[in-house]
Amino acid sequence: MATLGPHRVKTEPPVKLEKHLHSARSEEGRLYYDGEWYIRGQTICIDKKDECPTSAIITTINHDEVWFKRPDGSKSKLYISQLQKGKYSIKHS
């Protein structure tokens, strides 16, 4: 009878799980963020760490991003994942 050697199991490196600090999702053209609903045309305050808060108007809400227009007319987008991770935060103005 042959003896079996110790089982060698290849260990996978730990997977980095990104924790979602904030609740954020889009639903039927609306954005749900930290217990508040946001819709197109609303004025919001966008806060990014280490930057001054910015006022903006929501122009489009898609399944994974929110487009907004600043007072100077420039347009930008936030990914919903950025809101979930806390890179940006928004609130009603």
Explain this structure.
About 5% of the residues lie in helices and about 45% in strands. With about 90 residues, it is mainly beta. The strands form two sheets. It has a five-stranded antiparallel beta sheet with strand order 7-6-5-4-8. It comes from Rousettus aegyptiacus (Egyptian fruit bat).
What keyword list fits this structure?
single chain, 93 residues, mainly beta, SH3 type barrels, five-stranded antiparallel beta sheet, three-stranded antiparallel beta sheet, 6% helix
Summarize the structure.
This protein has 93 residues and is mainly beta. The protein is built from 1 helix and 8 strands; from the N terminus they run βββββββαβ.
Please render the helix and strand layout as text.
Elements: E1 24-27, E2 30-33, E3 36-38, E4 43-48, E5 54-61, E6 65-69, E7 75-79, H1 80-85, E8 88-92
Antiparallel strand pairs: 1-2, 2-3, 4-5, 4-8, 5-6, 6-7
Structural class: mainly beta
General form: elongated
Question: Uncertain segments of ≥5 residues (pLDDT<50)?
Answer: none
At CATH level 3, the topology of the domain at 39-92 is: SH3 type barrels
Specify Rg, calculated over alpha carbons: 21 Å
Q: Describe the strand arrangement of the main beta sheet, using strand numbers.
A: 7-6-5-4-8
Largest sheet: 5 strands, antiparallel
Under CATH at level 1, the class of the domain at 39-92 stands as Mainly Beta
User: Helix count, per DSSP?
Assistant: 1
For the record, the CATH architecture of the domain at 39-92 stands as: Roll
Strand content: 35-45%
The percent range for helix content is under 10%
Keywords: Nucleus, Repressor, Transcription, Transcription regulation
Protein name: BRMS1 like transcriptional repressor
Region (Disordered): 1-20
Biased composition (Basic and acidic residues): 9-20
